[in-house]
Structure formats: structure tokens, C-alpha cells
Amino acid sequence: MRRSLRILGASRRLGGRVVLRGIDLALNDGDFLVLAGESGSGKTTMLRMIAGLDRADAGIVEINGTVMDDAGRVFIPAERRGLGMVFQDFALWPHLSCLENVALALPPVTPKRNEAAMALLDRLGVAAVARRRPAQLSGGQQQRVGIARALATRPSLLLLDEPLSSLDLETRERLREELRESLRATGVSAVLVSHDPEDCWKLADQVAVLENGAIRQQGTPQALWEAPASPYIARFTGAHGGIPVPVMARCGQAALVLGGEVIVLPGAPPEKARLFWRDDAICPAGEGGIAAEVVSVNFEAGRFRVRWRVPGLAQPLSGYAAAPVPLGAQRISIDPAKIFLFDVSGDHCP
Amino acid sequence: MIAATLALATGIAVLKLQHGRSLWFAAGMQGLLATNMAVPGLVLGAGYVIAFNNNVLPLYGTALLLIVAYAAGALPVAVRLLGTATAQLDMKLDEAARIFALPLSTRLIDIEAALLARPGLHAWLLVAAAVMFELPVSELLYVPGEMPLGVAIVSADMMARYDVAARLALLGMAVLAGLAAALCLALRLGGMPRSLEGKAV
Which keywords does the record carry (chain A) (predicted)? Predict the structure, then answer.
């Protein structure tokens, strides 16, 4: 399959600090990649490097099979890469109307520019405000115009720098769907920088997670959910916890001792570990299980969030129940397939 | 007007030169420009007479020297006024223009210049007003027989022709008001980007 984007061993230093190191990344044609990571992990630098607004110190950046940046030997500037980009703070030209913003981005040979620009605005649902200037629009409308402008260049690869982060929940949800539909309809590949897990679930074909300037894990959203490679990825994919737990070695495997019960997990035991778990990993058990005490129960979006204190653990475990659970002693069961242990350095243990 | 335009053009060049360089460079440049303001006009004028009254650069007595002196005097003000405006210009606007493959001329004229037009024209007007009534440098450097407005007003005053002096002062103010009105109108009629003209937008 043809690759829209390929990055091989790319590194970047800024102000004497290594911002990106040894980045290897590939994106197939038509795929949607979500680039996630904490603030300062290098996401925006990587996006700027792909865009040609920043240069790689080492490695290769290839777009649609053409080398764009070969660490000083080849460098094709942003204006010749044929990309589209949506900026976090929109970056619409404030002195031009929305129609002019889109029309200016159309390729010079485009016939009937106003019709073409208006068609794009119409597709994004902002044709009615085409004659207004960006400052006269809401954030959601501005971002729609930003997406229309990015699509105007007919890019094969679209870059999106946290385009939804400044929008309210409802607008974000609607724009997410519209963005996905627009890209599917045009067959455009996309790289979206985000630290919102919803973007991962609702937009991504692939997710790459940056930690300290390096790609910690890349795969489908499902692969990341099933086996997160770090505490950040576990949290990003919806796991709870991060509490320190006692771990023993048993026949070369990690044995987690909770409330007198032993849960054996595959993999070498770490000296000190932190425990993460999925929503449904912990539930009340009729008989047997681990002795615990229900310390709080509160209603949360159609179910009940329960917190159990387990002897030997510094912090309570939490999970969900369909019905309210009485406070006090209770036995719980833990599904070993839905918990993750990371040693304190952040490496996945099992 | 030529001097004001020259001051603004040089100011933009100075700001471009400062862009992306160290703070020390910018501070040095600002200091150099500030000395131009710190030196009294008469001393500065005398300096120009000494520097340009020779065989190497025989500019003394020409209109060119007067224009250069006016522009140099107005440069610190022009740089300050334009510097604030350019500092507020979001770099992402130019980056967006680059991503969308706009040619350099379009980026400079339709994006950068268009966004700087208002503060630029205000700066130009301020510099033009200062230059129009400037006296110390004009007294020393004006071309014989072609008195600048400031010199003409003082000269009429000294000959007790107060009516002429008043008329000249009012004429200067009227010219400035006319310029301001014309510039406001030009900004209001700014219109569409040059690169979209004639392309059926």
C-alpha cells in the first residue's frame, strides 16, 4: 500500500534540548493518525517538521514517496509540500472574509474560484457566513472555515494541530464527525495532534503516542487499549489508578497480593509497581474474592461509582456497579486481564 | 512625504534585520537609533554639514541631504510604532500562507502589508507631521531658495509678517488633515486581496 507519510529516524533539537529523537512513523494512504502525548512531548514540533516549518536534525521525512527532508541534504519548504493544515487557534487571515480565506488557498489554476470556495464552505456548513470576517464568527464556525481552507489545497495529507481543543463539547463532537466524513469522502490522509482520548476513539485508524520526544507506542486504538505500553497510555485509553502495589515473584511471574488473595500476572515482577485497571476490572463478588470495604458510592452517568479500600493498599480501588452498593465490608473480584502493572519507571511489567 | 516614506521603509528594513536575531542585537539597534533622538537637532544638523560638505559626498545644499536627515531623525519613532504592530502580528498567519503555497509577493502584499497597513499609515502620518514642521535641521540644511514650511513660518514671523506665518501654519495643518482623510478613505476602500482581483471572487 502507498504511504502518505514515512518518517525514519528523525530527531530535532531546540535550544540545546532534544525535542524529538529516533522517530519512526508510517501512515498509509487514506488513514487517520492521531498523534497523542503530554504537553511538551514533542507533538507540535513533529507536526511542524512534517509541514516543513521546521527542519529535522537527523533522519528522513517522506511524503507520498518523495523525500521532503533529509537532514540538510534535501529540504523542500512548506510552500512546495502540497499539504493542508488546520491550526489550533485557526490562523485565519483576519482582514479577509471567509470566502476570501478559502479562495486564496485554492490552487492558482482553479477556475471559478468563488464557486469552488463557496462549495467547500457549504460542505462544512458555513456558506451562510461566507462574506463575514473571521472575528465575526464563533469558534466552531472559524474552525469549520479553517478546515474548508485546508481542504481547498486538495492535499493528499492534512495536518491538524489540536483543532478541536478550544471548542465546546457539543461543537467538538459535531465537528469530529464532520471532519471524519469529509476526509473519508475525499480520501485524504490526516495527522491530528491531540491529547483528547475521544479523538483517538472517534477519529483514529492509527494512534502514535509520544513520550519525552520518542514514540512510545504506535498501533490501532484497540491495540493500545488492550496493551498500553506506559502509564500515560493506560490513562489515555481510559484506565484508572496508578497506585503503588506490593508485588512478589512467583515462578518467574509477578504476583500481586491484595487483601490476602494472590493475582498472578505474566511477566517478570518489578521491585516497585503501580497498578492501573479498566472500568470493569473490579466488581462486587458474591463469595470468595478479596476482602474490601466500600468507602463511597456516587451516581455517575447512569451507573454507580464505587470506591473500595483494600488492606495493604495506600489508596482505594474504584469501579462501577449497576445498582447502589451499601457501605461497609464487601468482597470483590479483580479480572487479571483488565489490570496493568507498570514499574515505577513507567515500563509495562507483564 | 518622501522623507516619511523613506523613514518607514528603513524602519521596516531594521525590523526585518532584527527578526530572529538575539535580544542583544535588537537592544543595540534600538540604542543606536535612540542616540539619534538624544542629540539636539542643531548639533545633528551641524554634523550633517560637516559630513556631507566635501568632495567625497557633496550632498550639502541638496534636497537629498534634507530628506536623508529628516528620515534619519524620524527613524526611531517609525521603528517604535511599527515594531509594536509587527510584534502583534501572529506568525502563524504567515505560516498558514506558506502551507497553502501562496507566492512570496502575495504573502508580503496581501497578508503582511495588508495587516500592517493601518498602523503603518498612522506611523507615516505621525512622521510626516513631525517632518513638515521640523525646524533645527531644516534651518541648517535647506536648499537656498526652497524653504521648508517650518523655516518659512519662522522667517515670516521674524519679518513681522504674522498673517503670512499664520496662513502657512494653517496650510500645513490643512495638508496634514487632507492626508489623514485620504489615508482613512484608502483604508476603508482597502478591498479584496490583489491576488484575487480579476479572478471572479
Answer: ATP-binding, Nucleotide-binding, Transport
A86: closest CA of chain B, how far (Å):
9
**Please, are residues A196 and A169 in contact by the beta-carbon 8 Å criterion?**
no
Taking contacts as CB-CB distances below 8 angstroms, the residues of chain B near A80 are 101
pLDDT at residue B201 tops 50: no
Alpha-carbon distances of A331 from A324, A328, B145, rounded to whole Å: 15, 10, 107
Query: Contact B201/A103, CB-based, under 8 Å?
Result: yes
Residues of chain B numbered 100-119 and touching chain A (CB < 8 Å):
100-102, 106, 110-111, 114-115
**A288: alpha, beta or left? (left if phi > 0; alpha if psi -120 to 50):** left
Place of cell 486538495: A154
Q: Which of B23, B194, B201 to probe the A interface (max A CBs under 10 A)?
A: B201
List % helix, strand, coil for chain B (3-state, nearest 5).
Answer: 75, 0, 25
B193 to A100: CB separation less than 8 angstroms, yes or no: yes
Per residue in A21-43, pLDDT (tens digit) is 999 999 999 999 999 999 889 99
Closest partner residue to A113 (CB to CB) among B97, B110, B201 is B201
Domains, in order of start, for chain B: 2-196 (1.10.3720.10)
| pLDDT digits 0-9 by tens, A332-349 | 988 888 888 888 765 655
Widest pairwise Cα distance in chain A: 75
Say whether residue A89 is in contact with chain B using an 8 A CB cutoff. yes
Pairing of strands A17-28, A3-14: antiparallel
Residue numbers of chain A with a pLDDT score lower than 50: none
Average pLDDT of chain B to the nearest whole number: 80
Give the number of other CB atoms < 10 A from CB of residue A343: 18
Q: What's the CA gap between B7 and A86, in Å, rounded?
A: 38
A78 at the B interface (CB within 8 A)? Answer: yes
Cell of B62: 541638496
Structural domains in chain A plus CATH codes: 3-229 (3.40.50.300), 239-343 (no CATH)
Reference B133, options B76, B73, B59, B184; nearest CA is B73
Q: Summarize pLDDT for B167-186 with one digit per residue, the tens.
A: 989 998 998 889 888 888 87
CB–CB of B137/B69 below 8 Å? yes
Q: Count CA atoms within 13 Å of residue A137 on its CB side.
A: 27
- Supply angle C-alpha B54, B55, B58, rounded to 5: 65
Write down the pLDDT at residue B200.
44
- ipTM higher than the 0.95 cut: no
What does the alpha-carbon distance between residue A63 and residue A168 come to, in Å, rounded to a whole number?
A: 33
Q: Do B92 and A89 touch (CB under 8 A)?
A: yes
Name A17's bridge partners.
A14
Inter-chain touch A78–B98, beta carbons under 8 Å: yes
B21-75 pLDDT, tens digit per residue, is 777 887 887 787 777 777 777 787 788 788 777 777 777 778 787 788 777 777 8
